[in-house]
Structure formats: C-alpha cells, structure tokens
Amino acid sequence: MSSSNAGALAAPQQVQQNPVSIFYGFSAFNETVTVLETVLITGASNPPSSLQQFAGARLLLLDATGNLHSVWREHEVLTGSCWDLLASLPALVPQGPLALLGLGAGTVPRISAKYFPGCMYHGWELDPTVVMAARIYLGMDQLEKEGALVCHIDDALTVASQGLELPVFSGVVVDLFAKGQLLPELTQASTWQSIRQLLSGSPAGARVLVNLGEAPPRTAGQRWTPEALTSMAALEAMREVWDGQVSVMHYQDSDIANNLMALTGPCPSPAEMQASLPEGLQHVGQQCPWTDGSELFALLAGEDKRRQLSQK
Length: 312
Hints:
Blueprint: E1 14-16, E2 20-27, E3 31-37, E4 40-42, E5 58-62, E6 67-72, H1 82-86, E7 98-101, H2 107-115, E8 121-125, H3 128-137, H4 140-145, E9 149-153, E10 171-174, E11 177-178, E12 181-182, H5 189-196, E13 207-214, H6 226-241, E14 246-253, E15 257-264, H7 270-276, H8 294-310
Parallel strand pairs: 7-8, 7-10, 8-9, 10-13
Antiparallel strand pairs: 1-4, 2-3, 3-5, 5-6, 11-12, 13-15, 14-15
C-alpha cells in the first residue's frame, strides 16, 4: 500500500531472528530432541526461509535429520500445515474420544481443543524425552490438566495388544515418522489391521485420518522420490484393509511440503467438508478436494512402467 505522505517513514517490519535452542537432549529413540524458539524482532533481515511460516513459534525437532514434529505458539494454535487438517477429524466423525498415534508435543489435540470444545484424545508417544520437553516447553501439560489429552508413553503400533482399558474411539489420527521418513511398518496391511481394531465397537461413521508423508507428483513424466513411493505403498496397504474405501488429498504446507493425506470411509465432497468445519478451520477444506485416488494409481502405473524400461 502506498502513501501520499512522501516524508513518512515506513513502519518497522517484524520478522524472526535466527532460532535459538531452548532445549537439547539425547534420546535412545530419536538420537536428539531439540526445542527451538524463533523470536520476532524489529529490523532483522534475511530470516531463514524454511522457518518463515513459524515465526514466533517453538518447534520440536527430532533426530539428526532435524525433522519438524510439533509447533507451539502461546496465543495461536493453527500452524498453516497438515496438523490443521489432522485436527479437523472431529468434524468428520461422531462425537467421542479420539486416538492419536504419533503424539509429538500435542499440536493436534491443542488445535482440536480450541475448535471442538470438549474434544479429548488418547495420544501415544514412544519417546519419554519428547514427552518431558513437550510438557515443559510446548504446553502439553496444560492439555493434560484440562482433560483434553491422556498421554501414553508407549509404542503406538502395539496399542491394540497393550491390554489397556480404553474408551470406544470415534476416530484415529495417525502421524508416525522417524528420521524424517514414514514408518516402514505402515506399508504393511497387518499394521493397518491392528490400527483398525482400535475402532472395534465404534459408532457408524468412525474414521482414520492419516498423514502419509511426501505426496507423489500430480502430472505424468515427473520423477517419483523414494518417499513418495513409500507413501503410495502405505496407501495401497490401507486400501486393502478398508476394501478400497480410502480417500486421498494433497495438502500443501505453504512452501515447505506437499503431504499425501488419507481418510477412511465415504469420500466427503467439498461442500460436505466445508459445511462440517467450524469457523477458523475453513482453510483446510479449501485445499485440493478429497478424491478416490484413482489418478494417483494411474500415475504410479506409468512410473512403474518407466522404471521397468530404464532397467532394461
């Protein structure tokens, strides 16, 4: 916006400083656990482009890859990334408690608690160092005190066999990564069969919402990364367990990442998605619509053919 006052000084612009580490710990599960704080200051220049989206936030980074696992801001719960979509699951399932496999520092329950009052999660996190850091630096202790979260320090992939007395869940959120990669167990149908058991006895309409990691290209001729091929292998395993009733969405995390998301059950139309979302979460319904994924499998077939020809 221009000004007619030629002598006026431009207002100072707030950008973030280079992030500072406020916690650094070692872990048997994640090698290292780091909490960074990006501080808003006046007059700084050239902020790190990969962190501009998270200016003023605390970030949970795990292992040597520095992969981002949680975001916390004192006065804002939305992240502008796929956690916002994961936290929208209460809009798509019957009212009731939810399971979260891959709790991190509680980003998803924190968003849901604001937009779906009374929503409660049981969350599983393998690493006790992550839980400690989350409670001290990333606000997770407050979620537990308010009854929005029950934290289980255990293996998320063995929940069904842990013998716990759990409520009947209305939905399950899955967000499981290690060393920057989707857990390889998620490419196996047996893993999804175990996860589906968490919905045993659940009301009609219960769903599973999943972050499958890097999305494959959406146009023919582009090279597929190993990570995108893993995402598709996990999607195929899900479709086997849910008899093909799995929808997909490409979710663009600003300029940072393009994630492939998967949702079990009937595919919601764009109108249904928008109508179900509360004010403040409408942006997650404005991404690419949920589809049956047939276009992705057609592209995958082309990629498989290209790879076979290149090996001859």
